[in-house]
Automatic annotation (TrEMBL):
Signal peptide: none annotated. Gene3D superfamilies: Ribonuclease Inhibitor. SUPFAM superfamilies: L domain-like. PANTHER family: LEUCINE-RICH REPEAT AND IQ DOMAIN-CONTAINING PROTEIN 1-RELATED, LEUCINE-RICH REPEAT-CONTAINING PROTEIN 9. It comes from the Eukaryota. It comes from Angomonas deanei. This is Uncharacterized protein. Keywords: Leucine-rich repeat, Repeat.
Length: 495
């Protein structure tokens, strides 16, 4: 009926939960009432979820007495899949009663053929043992920042468990996880007392592991997890080796701020797409990565690498960042990187960007503070290039930039050897130029850049006038402070 299409609009008038008298009118009313931001009887439907799953929010002990009173609503047809999200605050004297209440709810739902799963959130608990009967029914456990939780006893009977988050706890071992064969996600980030992952061996469904800033020193046990897709070991200062071999589904490896010395084992993981090893000062080379056909992003900024050898052989590489790698002096290894879109080479020792002229998909280039770089000659005829930042470099000219027709943003702040903007003529899409603290003397090259909106020339003491920019109708943001331009000089001619 037509009125059903108007229900969502009508129900938005309710700032509080939709009145039960409205929700029970029909199954359609029920669905739209549960889509409401406040739901009905703490029960909501998520319109963005891939599946039609209802969520029941339960805060304990406050909602313990209320829960049996809403069972009728939960089993009322049509009874769709239900996720019960229960939050426990500390280990008070009523815990056993609250656990029994949820276990009884599960029995009722099961008897009425209502599919359901539990999500348990723990705050301030120091033990899971009291929750054992409920843990056996649970798929998702979050015990984030339970600082005094030092054991996972109680989980041994949790065969349904798929997600476990015990980040920033004091847990020292993961032995009980051997009895959790369906575990898919594990978050032990910040668990500084945890030194090994031996107990996760043979978790056949484990896909994502976050052990960042933990005390783990070896991750070799993860080689026995064939479904593994993501490993986050950022900030693991005791970790010296990735030890990840022959993981056919591994896609993302994050090891920034660790003490890894090599990435070579990743050559046996053919599906890897992202490798982050920024601030790994003991990492001296990228050997092994050149064989990864699906590799899209590499971030080794502020690491100890001395070169980027053979990365041009990675046909899928889109982003490369080696900012602050002062021992890297050449981009030649990128010759022929046909998919490369973004290069961060700031504060490196590169002397040329000529190799980039073969990177036809290049969109952004950052070579800030590269004092050995005297020319941008390699940035020629790049038809997708939109942004170049060569601030505080040694460049003396912009003569080749004009052959990049889609360029939108150019920054050459502090390039003291730059005396002219010649080369920018006719760039139809150029919107922003920052040439502050350069020695340019005039800006006539910009008068044929009709899309220019922002121009910063702060501290250009050799620049005496910007009259050449008369007629740029989109230019509204101009900064010529501390330059040689006469104060209050009119930019546009007055009638």
């Amino acid at each position: 009926m037509r009125w059903s299409y108007l229900l969502p609009e009508y129900l938005e008038y309710f700032e509080q939960p939709v009145p039960l008298g409205v929700a029970v009118v029909s199954s359609v009313c029920r669905v739209y009432a549960e889509y409401h931001s406040e739901g009905v009887l703490n029960c909501q439907l998520n319109p963005d979820a891939e599946q039609n799953v209802r969520t029941l929010q339960v805060s304990l002990p406050a909602d313990a007495a209320h829960l049996p009173l809403v069972e009728w609503w939960l089993v009322r047809a049509p009874a769709t899949q239900l996720k019960v999200s229960a939050t426990f605050e500390g280990c008070n004297g009523t815990i056993r009663k609250e656990v029994d209440t949820l276990v009884n709810l599960s029995s009722t739902l099961t008897s009425r053929a209502v599919g359901h799963a539990f999500l348990l959130l723990f705050r301030g608990v120091d033990s899971l043992s009291l929750f054992t009967p409920l843990l056996a029914l649970t798929e998702d456990i979050r015990a984030y920042r339970c600082l005094t939780l030092n054991s996972l006893d109680g989980l041994s009977g949790s065969p349904r468990l798929k997600i476990l988050d015990i980040s920033q706890s004091s847990v020292t071992n993961l032995k009980v996880l051997k009895a959790c064969p369906f575990l898919e996600r594990l978050d032990i980030s910040g668990c500084t007392e945890l030194a090994a992952l031996d107990d996760v061996e043979n978790l056949g469904r484990l896909r994502h592991v976050n052990l960042s800033h933990s005390g783990v020193s070896c991750i070799k046990a993860l080689e026995c997890c064939p479904q593994l897709e993501t490993v986050d070991a950022c900030g693991c200062t005791r970790l010296a080796s990735l030890s990840l071999t022959s993981l056919s589904k591994l896609r993302n490896v994050y090891a920034s701020r660790s003490n890894v010395t090599s990435l070579a084992t990743l050559r046996t993981c053919p599906m890897v797409q992202e490798v982050f090893a920024a601030d790994c000062t003991l990492l001296t080379d990228l050997d092994g990565l050149e064989e990864l056909q699906h590799l899209k992003e590499i971030n080794v900024s502020h690491s100890g690498i001395t070169g980027i050898h053979n990365l041009g052989r990675c046909p899928s590489l889109q982003l490369l960042s080696f900012t602050g790698c002062k021992a890297v002096s050449s981009l030649d290894a990128l010759n022929g990187a046909s998919s490369l879109e973004v290069v961060h080479a700031s504060r490196s020792a590169i002397t040329s960007v000529r190799a980039l002229r073969t990177c036809s998909m290049l969109r952004e280039v950052y070579v800030v503070d590269c004092m050995n770089l005297t020319s941008l000659d390699g940035l020629t005829g790049l038809h997708h290039l939109k942004e170049v930042n060569a601030s505080f470099s040694g460049i003396t000219t912009l003569s080749t930039i004009g052959t990049c027709p889609l360029l939108e943003r150019l920054s050459v702040i502090g390039c003291e050897r730059l005396i002219s903007l010649d080369g920018l003529e006719g760039l139809q899409h150029l919107k922003e130029v920052d040439a502050s603290r350069t020695n340019i003397k005039e800006v006539s090259a910009l008068r044929t850049c009709p899309s220019l909106t922002t121009l910063r020339l702060q501290g250009c003491v050799q620049l005496l006038s910007i009259r050449d920019l008369d007629g740029l109708n989109h230019l509204f943001n101009v900064d010529v402070s501390q330059s040689g331009v006469i104060p209050h000089e009119d930019l546009f001619d007055q009638d």
